[in-house]
Amino acid sequence: MSHTRKLGIALCLLAGSLSQAQTWKMQPVALQTRWAKEVKADKPYNEYPRPQLERTQWTNLNGLWQYAITSAEASTPTAWEGHILVPYPLESALSGVKKALMPEQRLWYKRSIVAPAMKAGEKLLLHFGAVDYQCWVFLNGKQVGTHEGGYTAFDIDITTALKKGANELVLKVYDPSDAGIGPRGKQVLNPKDIYYTPSSGIWQTVWLEQVPAAYINHLELTPQLSGASLEKGQLTLNSQVIGDCKGCTIEAISGVATATLKPAAGGNYTGVLAIAQPKLWSPADPYLYDLVVRLKKGNAVIDEVKSYFGMRQVSVQKDNQGVERIFLNGKPYFNLGTLDQGFWPDGLHTAPTDAALRFDIEAIKSMGFNTIRKHIKIEPARWYYHADKLGMLVWQDFVQPNPGLPAGAKQIFEKQGKEMMEQLHNHPCITTWVLFNEKWGQYDQERLTKWIKATDPSRLVNGHSGEILYVNEKLRSPSPNAYVAADMTDIHSYPDPMNSMKMPGKAQVLGEFGGIGVFIPKHQWLTNSAWGYVNEKPAGLKAKYSIMNKHLQLLQKEGLSASIYTQPFDVEGEQNGLMTYDREVVKIPFAELRKIHQALNPQMGNLPAIAALDTDLTEPGELYAAMLEEYMNGKTDPAFIKELAMTAAQVGDRAGVNRFNALYVGTLKAPYSEDDLVLIENNTKKVTDPGFIFLQQQLQANPNRALHTKLMNIVYVDVIAPYVPNAAAKPNWEEIAMKVKPYGAPGEEILLRAKTIQLMNQQDWEHLKPVAKEYLSKYGQYLQPEEKKILEEKI
């Protein structure tokens, strides 16, 4: 595919790209990938962002923009705080900013563009790959568009707001993360365990596109196969044209056939491209057809776009033994998959480069998997393009609704789901839509499952992955009416695999299992954590994983059609990946993983060569014992003491953690590095820990809601919780108040919250009223809307 930039659309930043490039610097981060050093401020992500509707006339707006963070009520800033590198989210190191955005704040972007020379009737479209979460777009002070939903693309026709010369483009962003009502994926304001750092603002490519007065706005490409051996094929094409084009037709040309699309209602055009003896797309042979689509009036070409498509069929059918299984191209095909979160240590939601984006799929394919479950995140279009080209089945999750289902949550969930299905429809890699996950915000499951199937009958629907969940063989979430209207039954079982229930007409799949935690020193985001459903030492991982896969083979013989292992890469506090979070170390060699997977995925096709280090299998405790010996022999430099504290946490030596943290904190002097603060915060668990006073001092010097919440949680667990062992307890609140007084505002807030919850549980409305009133007046701004509403009703 061609990725030509037309130089005729001239755009610039007012200060000039060379001088601005000198103002950007990647911020310190606990881990960094190999691609971070390739990021340049003048042209990050310079590849064409939408390969299935490609034009030559486009201009990349990625690069340095000005930014500011204000209160929610503030108008457009007149003073800007510095530069942010687009398309990396605000919280990421690669943005050059690395700041948290609170729900009561707004993020602003600004840059200048120069209007291109345009023919009469031509239009200029402004495209955003994704902005998290809600945004308002202004050009020259005039609002030209808005969008809500942090994962889907949108565009705005800015033609009428343009003026000659320089134009000021401003973007205002609201991103409450888990404090809002919208789909947020794994993002939370207080990351821990299976939840991660938010990605606020622009996190995919921004670009301009010059189009004619009437232009092709959308393509929908649906492959269909028929015949006993699928020897007949056709591609159904639907296209939408924006603008008046009476008497126009659309011509679709591939290397093997041509079709003419004729006008239908609402600016739509439809047609069929017949393909005799089609070459089928599969992970082993991902054959793609090129496609050119032209909007014509007579013989004149008004608009032209390039695209591509793959011919493949996915279904649930009975095999020769009468067992319902997932079929690909008319044959049973075991979906051997892994659960991919799509997070990066240096870019968070945004991979450092397009090569990095591609690497994840290459690495997973090289491991011997044929399927990726893209877990409650929607990736940029180029990720799916790479999956199409490389050959990888994709189960695409909807991004879950707010679990509390506050007012508006259902509407934005369904709106974003509709946008997602339209946006990703043409990708042959996507074979399955996954509606809900483990009852997170589950509602109207039958209606929504049927809606998805009616909207896109070309794919399978997994109506609820993990609706039934087992952890350590204990059932956590029974569901008497599970998997209604879906194409499969799906169970989650941690850590060991098991089969889902057998139901007529449905395939049996294991939507998640595994989660074996293995920490690799010097390749960790959190140095005191190796979270997983079960933890294993590096030397024991291969055997444990091999045994799990032997069980998968037994389950496959009993009817299992798919398995999704958690997970390919470590992610922040989760260290249960087959590779480390920085994509540097593979915990089981690639060749060994392929051998393990061969029985369930015998046709792997061409495999990419992947550069990675094999893990060190030395017993971690032996390394730590050797370090202790060095310490006792007089090695006490700060860097070594810091490493000792980290390693003590890794091997579970609490006495060592306390000792070496106290020593290390004593060596720190302002200004403190990000790594220093992270280490102390992660290793502070009690009010008596040496880092607690240090964190209190940091909070006083730099108020920060995330740190405030961290201290609240420590005070609760260490001081308040022993007084309230159950909902019936009636503690001496005055005594508790004296205990938490030394801990300032975090202590006061958590005391009021604990007291409010306890009185609510006991339905003690008389004593609740004054407590709730004080809590709301002091800290109500931090409450979830539904919590706030309940308390307001009580007072």
- Given as residue ranges, the uncertain stretches (5+ residues, pLDDT < 50) are 1-22
Q: Tally the helices: what do you get?
A: 17
Q: Which CATH class of the largest domain is shown?
A: Alpha Beta
Overall strand count: 36
Could you say how many structural domains there are in total? 5
Any guess at the CATH architecture of the largest domain?
A: Alpha-Beta Barrel
CATH topology of the largest domain: TIM Barrel
The overall pLDDT, averaged over residues, is 92
Organism: Paraflavitalea soli
Domain Glycosyl hydrolases family 2 sugar binding: 86-212
Protein name: Glycoside hydrolase family 2
Signal peptide: 1-21
What does this structure look like?
- Belongs to the glycosyl hydrolase 2 family.
- Residues 86-212 form the Glycosyl hydrolases family 2 sugar binding domain.
- It holds the Pfam family Glyco_hydro_2_C.
- There is one protein chain.
- By secondary structure, the chain is α/β, with parallel strands linked by helices.
- The termini are far apart.
- It is 27% helix and 26% strand.
- The longest helix is centred in the C-terminal third of the chain and has 20 residues, at 538-557.
- β13 (215-226) and β14 (232-242) form a beta hairpin.
- α15 runs antiparallel to α16 (765-779).
- Residues 1-22 have low confidence and may be disordered.
In short:
Residues 86-212 form the Glycosyl hydrolases family 2 sugar binding domain. With 795 residues, this protein is of the alpha/beta class.
Give a quick set of tags describing it.
795 residues; alpha/beta; Jelly Rolls; Immunoglobulin-like; TIM Barrel; 5 domains; ten-stranded mixed β-sheet; seven-stranded antiparallel β-sheet; 17 helices; 27% helix; disordered N terminus
